[in-house]
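Section 3.1: Structural characterization of target chains.
Under the original work plan, the team committed to producing a structural model for every single-chain target entering the pipeline before any wet-lab resources were allocated. The record below documents one such target. The sequence was received from the expression subgroup and is listed exactly as submitted; it comprises 98 residues.
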Amino acid sequence: MASLVLALALQPGGIIAWLVVGLIAGVVAGLLMRGSGFGIVGDIIVGIIGAFIGGFIVSLFGFGGATGLIGSIVVAIIGACILIALLRAIGPGRRSTI
């Protein structure tokens, strides 16, 4: 993940790359998790936070940093799916009545 952060931070289009990766990851994660999505801004935020979560998870398993744009998107999708699952688990609306 550190190489992803450095690669995106040092390139002139770094902010745009973060936004594109975040948007793609957020949209795909929303589709995979059977949701209606969060809108453009919400998908970008979920995707960017997912990139950090995915990078942390991938590094825990000993894999190197994501390589290239596709690797960054895959890692961000994994993290975004984990984030959505966590939000659904702790969020309101899924209360069971006994």
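The first helix runs from residue 2 to 10.
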